[in-house]
Amino acid sequence: MMTPVFVSCGFSQIIYNDTSNMTAIDTFKSDESFARRLDSNDPLASLRERFDMIPGKIYMLGNSLGLMPKTAAQAVGGVIKEWRNLGIGGWLDGDPPWFYLAERTGEVAAALVGASPDEVICTGTTTFNIHSLVSTFYRPALGRKKIIASTMDFPTDIYALKSQISLHGLDWREHLILVEPDESGIVSEDNIIDAMANDVSIVHLPSVFYRSGQLLDIERLTTAAHERDIMIGFDCSHSVGVIPHRFDDWCIDFAMWCSYKYLCGGPGAPAFIFLGRKHFDCDPGLAGWFGYVKERQFDMNLDFEHAKSAGGWQVSSPGILGAAAVAGSLEVINEAGIEQIREKSLRMTSYLIYLTDELLSQAPYDFRVVTPREPRRRGGHVALTRHDGALGIKEALDLRGVVADFRPPNVIRFAPSPLYSTYHDVWSVVRHLREIIDTGEHDRLSSSRRKPIS
Ligand SMILES: *Cc1c(COP(=O)(O)O)cnc(C)c1O
Questions:
Q1: Among the three residues 335, 359, 382, which one is the final residue of a domain in this structure?
Q2: 261 CA: nearest ligand 1 atom
Q3: CB-hemisphere CA count at 13 Å for 77?
């Protein structure tokens, strides 16, 4: 391998970490020993031992599928043992009883998002939960018929919204308003608020855009929506577990998020619903027996009486094996503390942005950071673009053991996990990117492999 041309660029005077909980003004340097120093001063460094790291890989996809915490595997192992030893008895005699696992896990997650314990339930999947919540609140027959989302949304959210509109016999081309980003790919809160007309029923947006990593101002949008009598909900798949939330203080109506990204709950793990207390009396749009008032669920009454909590929005028997993994993973996250997790995440992404500016922004590297630089507008990952060759670069990273991803047309995403990534990992990613451009590896790969995908 080449020797990386890593010039030490001295101190940076740029303040990358200017959030209130990060008083230290970091002055990053670009040499390897500085990365080591950041690691040795990292209060969360020991958490890495709680994970089974993949040997030989630099894992930068905590925003896509979080690695496995050992406690998650132990919790799944525990349920398997209970299933073997107790059979159906596990529903009441498991530890904790399977019958209450979704509620218990919801209570634990509620602390992460600033909600009351009964406002959060571990259930369903993200897309399913969008259907469940939107079908509860979207009542076009009563008047307001429009839903606001954005062209930068994760596609499944848009598919769900379109089908919810179509289920009412309406045309989504007319009733789904998609707010567009500016030329830099940023969706401005002003534009979203401007779209909140008096025929809008619901605003449904992500907390963090999956491609750019932009974090929306949830509180501001919620206040604006409520001033106009519009309901507002957020898909927080890209923020829960890496950013603190204050759902109750912000007064949002509903939210949903997946468990397998920053929450490290495992592939396809059961997701979460947040439902603001003021909506507990609404009838769930999609009813099912696990949403029944728990004490009377086994009366087997044909008239549905839903639990007056987020639990009322459950539909089916919970997947206990999957929920156990989520519960096991939450132990590690709570131990770390969400404020500390956010602080480290911001420092890592700031460091990556700094290194990109210093070492990758000039020709021939030409990488550009498309994620907002202000910490309060940034989620947990950094998106880089390059005028061409992004797919080939991503594939060259693969061959070098760097796990990142490509999102068409030209974005490569990196999510250093505050739970198990090191600052040295971040530094190494930048070194690999330089080497790939220096050697032209990406050109050879992109020309041979790009076609099937584009
Ligand atoms: C990851 C993600 C999803 C995933 O949906 P599933 O139903 O869990 O497959 C949906 N929406 C957003 C915004 C996501 O980030």
A1: 335
A2: 1
A3: 6
Instruction: Tell if the pTM clears 0.85, that is, is over it.
Output: yes
Please tell me whether residues 354 and 212 are part of one structural domain. Answer: no
Residue nearest to atom 1 of ligand 1 (CA): 237
Could you tell me the CA-to-CA distances from 263 to 202, 238, 260 in Å, in that order? Answer: 27, 10, 6
Residue 157 CB less than 6 A away from ligand 1: yes
State the CATH number of the domain containing residue 366: 3.90.1150.10
Domain range spanning residue 38?
28-60+342-444
363 CB neighbour count, 10 Å cutoff:
6
pLDDT by position in tens, the chain (length 454):
333 333 332 333 333 344 433 334 458 999 999 999 999 999 999 999 999 999 999 999 999 999 999 999 999 999 999 999 999 999 999 999 999 999 999 999 999 999 999 999 999 999 999 999 999 999 999 999 999 999 999 999 999 999 999 999 999 999 999 999 999 999 999 999 999 999 999 999 999 999 999 999 999 999 999 999 999 999 999 999 999 999 999 999 999 999 999 999 999 999 999 999 999 999 999 999 999 999 999 999 999 999 999 999 999 999 999 999 999 999 999 999 999 999 999 999 999 999 999 999 999 999 999 999 999 999 999 999 999 899 999 999 999 999 999 998 899 999 999 999 999 999 999 999 999 999 999 988 865 554 444 3
Measured from the CB, is residue 206 less than 6 Å from ligand 1? yes
Measured in Å, residue 154 CA sits from the centre of ligand 1 at: 7
Does 238 contact ligand 1 (Cβ within 6 A)?
yes
Q: Is 127 in the pocket of ligand 1 (CB under 6 A)?
A: yes
204 lines ligand 1 (CB under 6 A): no
**Whether residues 55 and 171 fall in one domain:** no
Taking residue 331's Cβ as centre, other Cβ atoms within 10 Å add up to: 16
Query: Whose Cα sits closest to atom 2 in ligand 1?
Result: 237
Q: Looking at ligand 1, which atom is closest to the CA of residue 127?
A: 7
C-alpha separations of 249 from 245, 336, 341 in Å: 9, 23, 21
Q: Ligand 1 atom closest to Cα of 154?
A: 13
3-state secondary structure of 117: helix
156 lines ligand 1 (CB under 6 A): yes
